[in-house]
């Protein structure tokens, strides 16, 4: 009988957990928060009654603690670098460094669920470099970050801003795009790189990639024109001789 009741007990326990999740008493999810190097970030608490005691932790280590009988106390590398709002429970960390990345959580009887935050610290994006080349009758555009950059590169997104008269579909890589050389090469195309906190752009005029038929004609005319002028001057001088 006891053995047969085990599956039923497990299903019942699962049902209780699901109910608590729906009622917001338990939260297993960790909210991702992004902060910039040397900037500040605030982790927001959610309470259902006034705070009488608060403990913020990074992993298992205390960041700051307070109760209504004592002053706010900060720990470890967070001394003089955090502010705890004892009314809202919010924690602000100043002068972020890459080493501040971790999971943070608030513990208090005033919080229904022990809120968890995964802090990711990101450096400012460098400006990208945009290059182009003629490949199989198309202009291949490539957007690259040439500087050494290793801060959450998985978060970098590439996009292209093209005039309405030109189509520039992405290639096999998001950092590449293609334009047919028959298009209006006087147009400008922008490459945009971004992450959750930063956005950088760079642009290029298509005519700098490869001359179109019209621009070739202009180049030929510019090359021939000096010779024509010299020829006309020579004929004029020759005919003007006595």
Write up what this structure looks like.
This protein has helices at 2-22, 213-239, and strands at residues 30-36, 41-43, 53-58, 61-67, 73-74, 82-84, 91-93, 102-107, 116-122, 129-135, 138-144, 157-161, 176-180, 188-194, 199-205. It is of the alpha+beta class and 242 residues long. The strands form four sheets. Strands 1-9-8-3-4-5 form a six-stranded mixed β-sheet, with no helix packed on it. A three-stranded antiparallel β-sheet has the order 2-7-6, with no helix packed on it. The radius of gyration is 32 Å and the shape is elongated. This is Lymphocyte function-associated antigen 3-like. It comes from Balaenoptera acutorostrata.
List the helices and strands and how they pair.
Elements lengths: L1 H21 L7 E7 L4 E3 L9 E6 L2 E7 L5 E2 L7 E3 L6 E3 L8 E6 L8 E7 L6 E7 L2 E7 L12 E5 L14 E5 L7 E7 L4 E7 L7 H27 L3
Parallel strand pairs: 1-9
Antiparallel strand pairs: 2-7, 3-4, 3-8, 4-5, 6-7, 8-9, 10-11, 11-13, 12-14, 14-15
Protein name: Lymphocyte function-associated antigen 3-like
Organism: Balaenoptera acutorostrata (Common minke whale)
InterPro entries: CD2/SLAM_rcpt (IPR015631), Ig-like_dom_sf (IPR036179), Ig-like_fold (IPR013783)
């Amino acid at each position: 009988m006891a053995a047969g009741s085990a599956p039923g007990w497990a299903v019942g326990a699962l049902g209780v957990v699901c109910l608590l999740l729906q009622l917001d008493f338990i939260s297993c999810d960790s909210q991702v928060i992004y902060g910039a190097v040397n900037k500040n970030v605030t982790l927001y608490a959610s309470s259902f009654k006034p705070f009488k005691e608060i403990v913020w932790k990074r992993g298992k280590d205390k960041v700051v603690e307070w109760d209504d009988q004592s002053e706010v106390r900060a720990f470890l590398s967070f001394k003089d670098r955090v502010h705890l709002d004892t009314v809202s429970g919010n924690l602000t960390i100043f002068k972020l460094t890459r080493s501040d990345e971790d999971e943070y959580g608030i513990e208090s009887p005033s919080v229904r669920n022990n809120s968890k935050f995964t802090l990711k610290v990101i450096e400012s994006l460098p400006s990208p470099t945009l290059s182009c080349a003629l490949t199989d009758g198309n202009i291949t555009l490539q957007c690259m970050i040439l500087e050494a950059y290793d801060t959450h590169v998985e978060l970098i997104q590439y996009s292209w801003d093209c005039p309405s008269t030109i189509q520039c579909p992405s290639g096999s890589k998001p950092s590449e795009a293609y334009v047919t050389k028959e298009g209006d090469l006087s147009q400008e195309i922008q490459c945009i790189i971004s992450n959750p906190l930063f956005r950088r752009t760079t642009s290029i005029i298509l005519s700098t990639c490869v001359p179109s038929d019209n621009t070739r004609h202009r180049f030929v005319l510019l090359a021939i024109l000096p010779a024509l002028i010299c020829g006309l001057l020579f004929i004029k001088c020759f005919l003007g001789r006595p």
